[in-house]
Write a structure and sequence with these properties.
By secondary structure, the protein is of the alpha/beta class. The chain folds into 2 domains: 10-249, Rossmann fold; 256-461, no CATH class. 44% of the residues lie in helices and 13% in strands. The protein has helices spanning 10-15, 23-37, 52-62, 76-82, 109-118, 144-147, 153-157, 172-175, 191-201, 229-232, 238-243, 256-266, 275-290, 302-323, 332-342, 356-376, 382-387, 402-407, 417-424, 430-446, and strands spanning 66-69, 90-94, 124-128, 133-137, 149-151, 168-170, 179-184, 206-208, 211-213, 219-225, 246-249, 394-397, 452-455, 458-461. It is elongated, with a radius of gyration of 29 Å.
Length: 462
């Protein structure tokens, strides 16, 4: 963050050559400048560069209010918050103005009087871009006062007339003047509250308890909604939908690499999670989104995979602490245990009652098999299959350390298969090597070349 500008009066601001521009002009100019220079206007947004982002950019260049439609966990809120980067880092405002009025464009009678009386000595303050973004989660109990405003009884008690505009306490939208206001889950707003937004969005005036204030508000209204909310909990009323200049559909990441990038970016890991485990999690999440057994109308949020990565990392940290391992590295056995915790985040179709865990187990096996084929293609695992001849087994489990797993592997004579597997997964320590070998063993089991028995947190391959 750069230092706050030192200019403190309207006269000094005028002398500096500062020019006033509206919020939409500011966003348009900053967005076009970033696009022209090749700078990414949307850092941290993955998998939408060819679909959602061009649509949003066109809407912002046109100066439109926008509603984002999409299932849960598609990054709608993150996308809205990223828009802060399109605002000027610092912008001047009249000191003490409740509506952050620009000294060159006052909109309330009180501020106009101050500008006329104080002239160049009018004190100004500077707002950082973060202060110009407001977010509201729409809930059924949200009131008109919350969003638009209401008469302030304390100001009436001070002696002001009830019809005096200065008795009004402004709500979130007017107080976001010269900034962005984002309303999450817009359909959850009661219809009468949505009606109260109509004039704010189109005519830009404020109507409160019979008072009509002609305030040319300079505010960009953004909203998010789940399409299913139109029938499940509520809907966006038609006149309000009509006032949004753009309605943009979001989606889950299309490419596997983007899915993995989202997990890596968002997950807060307390232990190391090898890339292959993250890939299996991403493949598992994508398989759930395509399964006819899962209710796709509710979606499978990216938070599912993020929570999965955090859970397997926590399992690795738990094992390392209890068993005294030097490195906390997640393994496939941790992922299997994590699914038991994550299953409640998925909504299944009504006909799948009683089969939920079978569906999860099957899709996890499919995701694992796909990852094994992608990484171990071309490697002959025959020596390992031959070594597990019925008299020798490999034991792993939630509390089996990486060193215990590696020490329990059968000897393969002159074969360097274990080293080859470790190199393929770029393993550099015992934990990563054990994770790689465990994935290979699971791949052999899924290919029906060896057997597997699991009981009480312990898994035996043989």
């Amino acid at each position: 963050m750069s230092e706050r500008p030192s200019i403190a009066t309207a006269g000094a601001l005028k002398a500096s050559g500062h020019t006033y521009r509206t919020l939409r002009e500011e966003i348009r100019a900053n967005l076009l400048a970033k696009l022209a220079s090749g700078e990414d206007p949307w850092p941290g947004i993955h998998g939408m560069s060819r679909t959602v982002l061009p649509q949003l950019e066109r809407a912002l260049i046109a100066g439109h209010d926008v509603v984002l439609l999409g299932e849960r966990g598609q990054g709608k809120t993150r996308l809205l918050r990223t828009m802060v980067g399109l605002l000027d880092e610092w912008t001047p405002a009249v000191e003490g103005s409740e509506l952050h009025e620009h000294p060159f464009d006052p909109i309330t009678d009180a501020t106009r009087r101050r500008v006329a009386e104080e002239g160049d000595d009018l004190p100004i303050t500077w707002l950082h871009r973060d202060e110009r973004y407001a977010e509201k989660l729409a809930t059924p109990d949200t009131s008109v006062a919350d969003l638009i405003g209401d008469v302030d009884p304390m100001r009436v008690a001070e002696g002001r007339r009830l019809g005096d505009p200065e008795t009004i306490h402004f709500g979130l939208i007017p107080r976001s003047n010269r900034g962005i206001v984002a309303i999450n889950e817009l359909p959850d707003l009661a219809e009468r509250i949505q009606v109260a937004m109509l004039n704010v969005m189109e005519e830009r005036d404020i109507q409160i308890r019979g008072h009509v204030l002609r305030l040319p508000l300079d505010v960009l209204v953004m909203a998010s909604a789940n399409p299913e909310d139109y029938t499940n909990r509520g809907r966006i009323i038609t006149p309000l939908k009509d006032r949004f200049g753009a309605e943009i559909r979001t989606h889950y990441p299309i490419e596997l690499d983007d899915e993995i990038a989202v997990i890596e970016q968002e997950a807060e890991l307390v232990g190391a999670v090898p890339p292959v485990i993250l890939e299996i999690l991403a493949r598992f999440t994508r398989a759930l989104r395509e399964s006819p057994s899962v209710n796709q109308r509710s979606g499978v949020s990216a938070r599912f995979a993020i929570a999965g990565a955090e859970t397997v990392a926590a399992a690795a940290r738990h094992r390392a602490t209890v068993r005294g391992e030097p490195d906390a590295v997640a393994r496939l056995v941790d992922l299997e245990a994590a699914v038991d915790v994550l299953g409640g985040k998925i909504e299944f179709e009504s006909g799948e009652e009683g089969r939920e865990w079978d569906v999860l187990a099957h899709l996890l096996r499919t995701a694992t098999a796909d990852a094994v084929r992608a990484h171990l293609r071309g490697i002959d695992l025959g020596p390992l299959v031959a070594a597990l001849d019925g008299s020798r087994t490999v034991v792993t489990g939630e509390q089996v350390t990486a060193r215990e797993l590696l020490d329990g592997l059968p000897r393969l004579g002159d074969s360097d298969l274990y080293e080859t597997i470790a190199e393929r997964f770029e393993a550099t320590n015992d934990g990563e090597c054990a994770s790689a070998i465990e994935v290979a063993l699971e791949g052999l089991y899924l290919a029906r070349r060896i057997s597997k028995e699991s009981d009480d947190g312990e898994t035996i391959y043989g």
